[in-house]
Amino acid sequence: MEKKNLYTHLLILLVLINLSSSLNVPAIFIFGDSVFDAGNNHFIKNCSVQADFPPYGSTFFHRPTGRFTDGRTVADFISQFIGIGLQQPYLEAQIAVMNGSRKEYPSKGLNFASAGSGVLQGTNKGWGVLPIQEQLRQFKTLIEQKAINRSVVERSLFFLESGSNDIFNYFLPLDTPKLDPDAYVEAMIKEVTNLTDQIYKVGARRLVVFSLGPVGCVPARALLPAAPINRCYGKMNAMVKKYNKGLESLVNDIPTRHPGAIGVYGAVYDTVQHIRAAPTRYGMIFMEAYGFINAMYNNTFDRAGFSNVSSACCGDGPLGGQVQCGKEGYKICQNPQGFLFWDYFHPTQHTYELISKALWEGKKSRIRPINLKTLTNLTLALV
Ligand SMILES: *[C@@H]1O[C@H](CO)[C@@H](O)[C@H](O)[C@H]1NC(C)=O
Ligand SMILES: *[C@@H]1O[C@H](CO)[C@@H](O)[C@H](O)[C@H]1NC(C)=O
Ligand SMILES: *[C@@H]1O[C@H](CO)[C@@H](O)[C@H](O)[C@H]1NC(C)=O
Ligand SMILES: *[C@@H]1O[C@H](CO)[C@@H](O)[C@H](O)[C@H]1NC(C)=O
Ligand SMILES: *[C@@H]1O[C@H](CO)[C@@H](O)[C@H](O)[C@H]1NC(C)=O
Ligand SMILES: *[C@@H]1O[C@H](CO)[C@@H](O)[C@H](O)[C@H]1NC(C)=O
Ligand SMILES: *[C@@H]1O[C@H](CO)[C@@H](O)[C@H](O)[C@H]1NC(C)=O
């Protein structure tokens, strides 16, 4: 099975690697949760999962955009690496098209991600978030309305990242899950399989599926009575790994299940664990010991490294994980770029940047079977 898939990939690559350097990807369509949300939730009435207030966005945009970090997300960085610029939240573009301030939807793609959502339709439903199935329905509607060109869809990248909220919620004491962990993960994978099937059906040929990061290490675990504070929550990470494994085998099956399509698996979990294990590798080794030098230079020194990989830069309570950044009583660190986590659930822009670089031009231990740079350069023969 494994061998056959690899062979299929090779076959496609041999025929289709494009030796020119023309831009083969006109657009990116993004589906998922708060890791990717660029502001959709802000436009959902009564949605209580928000990051549309300060100090979100303070490092890069210098204003809140609805992104759940201090700057750009992985989707933003990859768009910039490709050279097509950032994708607007779909709901924002929709308002602009409706009110006439915009003639048509942007040609470089759209971001449908909704923070708080999961791959299971019931996840955080009461908070007004848009499940990923609903995000896909919105996209399909645009295709049906011919607001998005099928020839664009066929050449575009499709980003899929979801599942953290389903797994985190599994451990909420008030939610009493009826399924055992394995069956729960299986149900999640079934939903993702259905999603990728649907995305293929409407014409997508380049699917990028991102694994979950180590959700059991987020500062927000301090909200869970059963989770340890001084180390990651092993039970949660075990479930995440199982889900990621399922995602990867789903991705491996894409070329055989969907002729003409390519699936790429981004190993975000391993990339983040690598950073956590050797934070200073990503900066200057003396940074921690001589933190005062850094302070003298206005914290510009540690731009490349991490001094804190456990607590949130912005929040309050144990690990900074019990109060959302920007909410009453929050505290903020002086050097977000030195922190792996920005708020209780989410990485800083610095972390996202490192992950993005690993996905863009990393080795197979980071992204496989090919990295995003190679994927972007492929010309796919349309089947
Ligand atoms: C891939 O595309 C980029 C531009 O997007 C170009 O700089 C690079 O040379 C291309 N590489 C190959 C191998 O085609
Ligand atoms: C939003 O919440 C208010 C008050 O709870 C309710 O009256 C209103 O119908 C809700 N609007 C939507 C669009 O759900
Ligand atoms: C139309 O919607 C866009 C996006 O929300 C907004 O920026 C713009 O001000 C609106 N224009 C009018 C005329 O209402
Ligand atoms: C769709 O794309 C093709 C090729 O880029 C172009 O010729 C055509 O005009 C586009 N159609 C619409 C409705 O944008
Ligand atoms: C996905 O699941 C829905 C029901 O939730 C079903 O109606 C649909 O046919 C499925 N789509 C595919 C492509 O399997
Ligand atoms: C640190 O920042 C302050 C205020 O922005 C500036 O006046 C000072 O020159 C900076 N110091 C260094 C060493 O860059
Ligand atoms: C990380 O930052 C938090 C909050 O500023 C602090 O309480 C904690 O001691 C720091 N941990 C390390 C290892 O520096």
UniProtKB/TrEMBL annotation:
Keyword Signal: yes
InterPro entries, A to Z: GDSL (IPR001087), GDSL_Est/Lipase (IPR051058), Lipase_GDSL_AS (IPR008265), SGNH_hydro_sf (IPR036514), SGNH_plant_lipase-like (IPR035669)
Superkingdom: Eukaryota
Presence of keyword Nucleotide-binding: no
Family matches, as Gene3D superfamilies: SGNH hydrolase (3.40.50.1110)
GO biological process: lipid catabolic process
Keywords carried by this UniProt record: Hydrolase, Lipid degradation, Lipid metabolism, Signal
Annotated signal sequence range: 1-22
Gene Ontology molecular function terms on file: lipase activity
Family note: Belongs to the 'GDSL' lipolytic enzyme family.
Name assigned to this protein: GDSL esterase/lipase 6
Source organism per UniProt: Gossypium stocksii
Lineage start: Eukaryota, Viridiplantae, Streptophyta, Embryophyta, Tracheophyta
